[in-house]
Design a protein that fits this description.
The protein is mainly alpha-helical. It contains twelve helices and no strands. The longest helix has 17 residues.
């Protein structure tokens, strides 16, 4: 027996990923893929964990539509919430997708999932660095970065100094939206304390 067959039939995760890959290869229509993913979203989290490799492949595939990749992203994030050992891999996927996509809705969902990855201590510096990097891009992203940093602080309160630095940052033109974002986060902070 060769190594391929041995790994395929002796490792249940590889076998499942292979079978799901064959199923997806046979499913060429985007509607069928969407229906498949809708049904797949209803499976228990431990099954998602077993099919994690397959889900990562779908997220990385450019042949899968953005709407379906959003469904896959939500499944991956849901799985990583329960299985924290997956968070470093998921963070790597998110950062890779952020650097290789132009779809604004997909980028928005990727950014929203960043704070969740701070559940693992080793991910916190990367999450903070990414949020700080986007806070310098544009006013809209800066406002969103304030909220992302707050969400990160909720998960890991050691990020308070980073949240404070974003809140204290003042621009020549502080837009109304920026002040509203800061006020919202300050309100939430005072409610938590």
């Amino acid at each position: 027996i060769d190594t391929y067959h041995y790994l395929t039939f002796c490792n249940p995760e590889i076998f499942l990923a292979l079978q799901l890959g064959i199923k997806m290869e046979c499913t060429k229509d985007e509607e069928e893929v969407s229906l498949f993913l809708e049904n797949f979203e209803r499976v228990p989290v431990h099954f998602l964990r077993n099919s994690f490799t397959f889900l990562c492949g779908l997220l990385l595939s450019e042949k899968v539509s953005i709407a379906n990749r959003l469904k896959v992203l939500s499944m991956i994030v849901k799985c990583s919430l329960q299985y924290l050992d997956l968070c470093p891999t998921v963070l790597t996927l998110i950062l890779y997708q952020l650097s290789n996509t132009n779809d604004s809705k997909f980028i928005f969902e990727l950014l929203k999932s960043l704070p969740i990855m701070a559940n693992v201590k080793e991910n916190v510096p990367k999450v903070i660095a990414t949020i700080q990097a986007i806070s310098h891009k544009s006013n809209d992203l800066s406002n969103f970065a304030i909220r992302l940093m707050y969400d990160t602080w909720v998960i890991d309160n050691k990020c308070y100094s980073n949240l404070e630095s974003i809140l204290n940052k003042s621009e020549e033109k502080d837009f109304v939206e920026t002040n509203i974002s800061k006020a919202y986060v300050l309100k939430k902070l005072s409610e938590k304390r």
